[in-house]
Amino acid sequence: MKLATTQIHRGQLLHFHDDPSSNPEAGVYIDDAALVVTEGHVEALGKAADILPRYDAEVPVLHHRNALLVPGFVDCHVHYPQYNIIAAYGTQLLDWLNNHTFPEEQKFGDATYASKIAELFLDELLANGTTTAMVFGTVHPQSVDAFFEAATRRNLRMICGKVMMNRNAPAALCDTTESSVSDSETLIKRWHGKDRLSYAITPRFAPTSTKEQLIGAAELHARHPGTHIHTHLAENQDECAWVKELFPESRSYVDVYKQYGLLGKRSVFAHAIYLDKADWRAMQETDSAIAHCPTSNLFIGSGLFDLQSAQQHNLRVGLGTDVGGGDSFSILRTINEAYKIQQLQGNNLDPFYSLYMATLGGAKALNLDQQIGNFEIGKEADFIVLDLKSTDLMTRRIESCQTLAEKLFVLQMLGDERSVRQTWVMGSATTSSGI
Ligand code: GUN
Ligand code: ZN
């Protein structure tokens, strides 16, 4: 008989059962917690003084000192094939796509190159404490095979999909409506629901798809309703003007996706900066989710996300790094920029709400909150150990903090991958694959 593997993690712990902006009881902080993990899942959680006496002395207890245990970060929008073009100088979205993104993405027809980048990308995510992500591949089906193979070798919960793109891009990166649907369907059958993986039907954005391809994507989702839909929306003003020209029959950018059947509970839209009142209502009526990508919105100069409108419409919002449009893999850096984007609009972003967006809020946006996002009993034990003394500056600054909210805020503003002491996936410590 196989003996259950149990480990106990002891330390300060913070997680959420609900949205702290609408439910003041949503957050749970335990100063000296014991988190019991058995066979990769949360078995128990409580005060160490209550939990520890219930377990045999042989059960290992890992004491994480000067640290905060939180659920693994969720990155709701990121492009693994853009690993090598992060931090490209001098352009905004449409030129950036033509000058940097499209040339690089052409390399992913080569499965060996795709595998190499997938490994580097996952190393980087884990070093930054991100344990789940919704990820763009390229137009090449082999880019998705390479990503899922790498993710499943590490037992990660990941979502990915092949880009569908049949116009306004280099010929080498274009598919057709028919090939995009049949290639995506083959990938769905191969990967969706295998281990911890799920498939996202991924039309790149309205300008690179004909209406027939968008309809094909929606029909494919209707045939496979457990899959996700993942695309970009209203990120940049020139892009929005282009969508008006390309889809004169639609009232707005959101309306393009609405008309062709792509809004819905399993759809995640990156950016969503330029929306009007009717657009917000359409997003709310369809329970569509948003990936807010602050580092990208600042780095490629796209604009300021209206988080208040998203909250007023009860939309699910997670955070996305949007690498390579975003210039950092770090969700802590992403929270830092999210704070500044709200400052520029006269709002204060609450540090508990930021951590919620990075964990349970992201899991809800991806419809993965039954599996991940907090430490409820039975959930998958993906979590991170954040070092409250990760730099001399942080150590000194946190010493002067009076409240948990202050400490958390300083961690978010001064933190980056140096603050991620360990990343645990399904109860196991992660290491680089070494490839
Ligand atoms: N819109 C269409 N493609 C992309 C992309 O690769 N990155 C970003 N940020 N926006 C896009
Ligand atoms: Zn993107």
Question: Could you give a short description of this structure?
Answer:
The protein is α/β, with parallel strands linked by helices and 435 residues long. The chain contains 16 helices and 16 strands. It is 37% helix and 23% strand.
Description:
- The strands form 2 sheets. Strands 5, 6, 7, 8, 9, 10, 11, 12 and 13 form a 9-stranded parallel beta sheet that branches. This protein has a 7-stranded mixed beta sheet with strand order 3-2-1-4-14-15-16.
- The protein has helices at residues 48-51, 93-105, 111-127, 141-153, 177-191, 211-223, 237-246, 253-259, 277-285, 294-299, 307-312, 331-343, 351-358, 360-365, 392-399, 404-414, and strands at 6-16, 27-38, 41-47, 61-71, 73-79, 130-136, 157-161, 163-164, 197-203, 228-233, 267-271, 289-292, 317-319, 383-387, 420-425, 428-429.
- The protein is globular, with a radius of gyration of 21 Å.
- The chain has 435 residues and is an alpha/beta fold.
- Helix 3 (111-127) crosses helix 4, helix 4 packs parallel to helix 5 (177-191) and helix 12 (331-343) packs across helix 16.
- The two termini are 34 Å apart.
- It has 16 helices and 16 strands.
- The model has no long low-confidence stretch (mean pLDDT 97).
- Bound molecules: guanine and zinc ion.
